[in-house]
């Protein structure tokens, strides 16, 4: 049984539904799923990430790695500190969520004497930006002038660009491969509900990607053109430094495996994963797993170096996660055991350790990160 929304939440979902219906009507009765997903997540004042509902942690819809333990952000700080020193650069975090990762990374960089001149956050959600500002002001008031929020990518950047669970939240195109041709699966209004309708693919780039995959008739999956565009944009502004993306996903061979013939698209509501992306619009997060082969291709096409691709477990352990955990004496059970349990979730193959991957793309001859030095899986891409 799914938790029932409050009357206020239900009213908000009804406003989001009305907005989506209007978009479909204005477009002539059909929009691509990417358009539906973008509006459901990001419509100003309405979308899931643009409105005020709790999203992260036990009271929200899902738990991210930074929410599990400060050791995640602290380990990331150790991983990226050499790049910041080498480039004398800054940090740019994409989609900083609750602000927890920024707090933990900055705190550890201070201890490492590797603080960047600026820690920039690019956040499209006014609601989340306010939460991030509150977190920084409360926990790291000494860095209030060092942390900057951006409305768009800078024209030039050197340092480290961080994206933790960013790519999975980008709008994806849904494609249905049929006997005759791949079709774009879009959304229509049918009575009082949303429904699926397939149409010929009009976008030449999407059609080329779908044709190249050459999947069997009856196969339904996602193609994330927005991820390609984001990587290309990051490469364009990067003068020298590293792009580090952490997310759940697979290489293309795994992503489009015959057994995954219904795709990876999911809605997340109060810690439940649902197959119905039309459930309570505005109250559910919509996500799809990441095709890291496509991310790597987009980076290399934009003249970035593919530094490494590995599991989250391998990256964190290579970067010193265990050593940071052991700074808490095991004899202090009340403090140590919760941290040890969180570490187990971060690195266990049955939890986040194997499903989540880390990909590093660089420009300017950056030294290889210790986190990517062992367990490299670039050959699988």
UniProtKB/TrEMBL annotation:
A Pfam family that the UniProt record links to this protein: Methyltransf_28
Domain of life: Bacteria
GO molecular function, one term: protein-arginine omega-N symmetric methyltransferase activity
GO biological process assignments: methylation
InterPro entries given in the database record: NDUFAF7 (IPR003788), NDUFAF7_sf (IPR038375), SAM-dependent_MTases_sf (IPR029063)
Record's keyword terms, sorted: Methyltransferase, Transferase
SUPFAM superfamilies membership: S-adenosyl-L-methionine-dependent methyltransferases (SSF53335)
PANTHER family reported in the protein's UniProt record: PROTEIN ARGININE METHYLTRANSFERASE NDUFAF7, MITOCHONDRIAL
Protein name: SAM-dependent methyltransferase
Organism name: Thiobacillus denitrificans
